[in-house]
Amino acid sequence: MGPENTVDDQPLRQGHPNHPKAMRVATVLTAIPLLIGALVAEYLTAFPNFIIAAPVALILLLVVVFLPQRRYAVRGHAMSDDRLRVVKGIMFHSDTVVPFGRVQHIDVDRGPIERYYGLATLQLYTAGSHGDVVSLPGLAHEDALEMRETIRSHIKRESL
Amino acid sequence: MTENPANAPIRPPEQPEAGELEAEAADGLPRRTDPRTFIVQALQTLPNMALPFAALAFTFRDNGRFALPVLLGLVALFLLLNTVFTFLAWWRQTYRVGESDIRLESGVLSRAARSVPYDRIQDVSLEQGFIPRLFGLTMVKFETGAGGSDEISLAYLTNEEGARLRELVRELRDEADGVPTGGAQAADAANASAQDTDATVLFAMGPRRLFVFGLFEFSLAIVAFVGAAAQQFDFLLPFDIWDVETWQRLVAGPGEQVAQLGPVGQVLGAIAAILTLLVLGLVTGIVRTFTRDWDFRLERNPKGFRRRRGMFTRTDVVMPVHRVQAVRITTGAIRHRFGWKSLKLVSLAQDAGNSSHVVAPFAKAAELTPILKVAGFPLPPRGLDWHRTTASYRVVAAVLGGAFYAILAVGAAGAAVYLGDSRYDWLWLVALALAAFAVFAAVRELFLWRVERHALSSRHLYQRRGWLAPGFAIADRVKLQSVDIVRGPLGRMFGYVTLHLGLAGGTFSLPGIPRSEADRLRGELLASMVETDFSRLVR
Predict the structure, then answer these.
(1) Which of B87, B272, B309, B469 has the fewest CB atoms lying closer than 10 Å?
(2) How confident is the model at residue B7 (pLDDT cuts 50, 70, 90)?
(3) CA-to-CA distance for B352 and B145, rounded, in angstroms?
């Protein structure tokens, strides 16, 4: 990853292997209304057959098949003993570091899809107006809980 | 999840070392909010449903004998569903008061588990709405300083339970704070008594200063306001003010006299109209400034800054010095030529919905220096290493900014050619103006590249912004919350990133810097940030 490792010398860790599957399911769920919309547009307009629906379906198929894996590959996180680093984004790349000493509270969220795949999203809230929520999806539920405990214990220790 | 009796132990016995505790074992048992909660919440959604049902009743009004039963059936169904859902939500929401944090679990389908460490809780407030009040219930809010929607609230507990929880959390929080805060408070108190005698005025504005300030606050808002009000309330007027003929009739007397004066008279009339607008704008600005900032005084008192201002509504705001997260110095393109600046403090405190406080709205640089010194944000020392953005970022910005107006200009010119009528010749003027804007937008970036810079001192991060109205922002290296390096597709192509800094109550970002510089800044800033815990920053 080149220069990115100069900040935190730790290598980035990837999320749970189930994460791309969960992302795919979520993408399918958002793709279905779009596809229906395209079919309706197809039905309503007098263009030749499938000139609207076919390209839309193709793009959605590509998005559903390839994008989750790509997004998963780009994502990563690293936790040192005083900070958490979250890297994500293909087009809009973002690389965020939150020191534990700035964490206000911690959420472990699980949507229905995440629960099915045994995943959870760890969310760190800071007092900042920009990036006040740093979320780290695609963790195994136990890992998320463990990370929460670790971060919480750091908050406790530092303020004593 | 078990329902647990009211006398369950919430605080386990003291342990020698918090770190050794297994979190699960240390926490109190999960408990639910008061059972009446779901009744209250179901009741509270009723007003929202009244309107749809009224609309439904209105549509059904002609549908004969089935209308009423169907409507009542729908209402009953909605009520049932509403009650079931609020009941489920209540059933699935639990909280527990742990050794070092409060935990909330909620959600029927999506589960959310939230943990709030005690030493992040600034205050616990109790809030009673009208319906909860009838039931003797209260909402407990934990204020963490995260601001806005991220605050944690427990709805609803009985009044006694709420008060008990507040006391308990305050107690536990003070315990979690430990000795150092107590020491700091003692030191604060000592400082307070020492400084009580000399509450110095840092900045004040008399009528003369306000008058000059008012001139720069030129505003045609009143004209727009009168126009808008006229449009809103035109039904109250005895004639249609948007009808040209009405006006012609109304001014027939004096209007004819003007017309008789010929072109000279018309030009004079136009000049008079412009002068009227000018005077109106100046008077508006002066009146607004006088009412808002009358007898403006900023003092340094033991608690921090104290600002008083206002003619009719006089406000008195106290801003503790340690709550100041960053400062901003801004100015306007014209007032900058006369050396006038304004100083704002960015802070966590939310007064009147505004998170930054103007402490010197209209001052010379020399007047700002002492305020900055008190706030702990001194002007940059000499010999700092100032960095620019990358040239590529400015080129991209110039091209994008120029292209935006250029496209509009081409559009206007195209429309003029297409319409091809001398009546539409004014479109050429529009096109010309837009082309000038395009050039200005591009040239502006060139100048911005020269002047916009940032530098890092041992305690602060400085940023210089703007070209015609140069401003300045200073952030404390320690009082930042997070560091985010963002790179969009253009940034990837042309080699620049944007550094966003999490700032409580404001934003601070450095756009268009090289990745290596962003990494260097992040390393330095994080090193400063991890030295101090948040609880030290806000107390």
Answers:
(1) B272
(2) very low
(3) 16
